What does this fold into?
Amino acid sequence: MSNNENIFIRAMKKGDIDSVNAIIEACVMGWDLPERVKRLSLGSYRYTEHDLDHLTAVVAVMTGNGIVGIATWNFTAAEDLPKNQHGMQLHGLYVAPRHQRRGVGSRLINCALEAAREQGMEGLTVKAQSDATGYFQSRGFTNLPVENEERDYPHRLWLAV
It folds into this structure.
């Protein structure tokens, strides 16, 4: 485990984009998908300066290591939430592979949860990569049912604040 005192969370800056995208690439390339699929989809996971106009983005910085993780979120559509709930969607959560299992992801999720609370939301939803659902479930997220197979992403999860 890392010492959480050596990790601080701050707003992502435009100058962080290259470091963040390197972390995203390392994470995506480790997913349980065919190599061709990872290469073809990687571009859709990378962030640009324009994304910072539409998402809240924070980075986890570890003393002596620089940026080791990122989380982004925004408000989400009602059809992606449990009925009669208001929430935010965790758009992205990535931790550099060599810093995983050290509490960085939990710190980033807690930051998003706090933002949801501050905005008067009831929870946080995420559309997870299939092999990441266990991680989110271990953090208290629960699966949302697929009500419309043509529209609903199959790995949607919810965590009430």
Notes: The chain has one domain: 4-160.
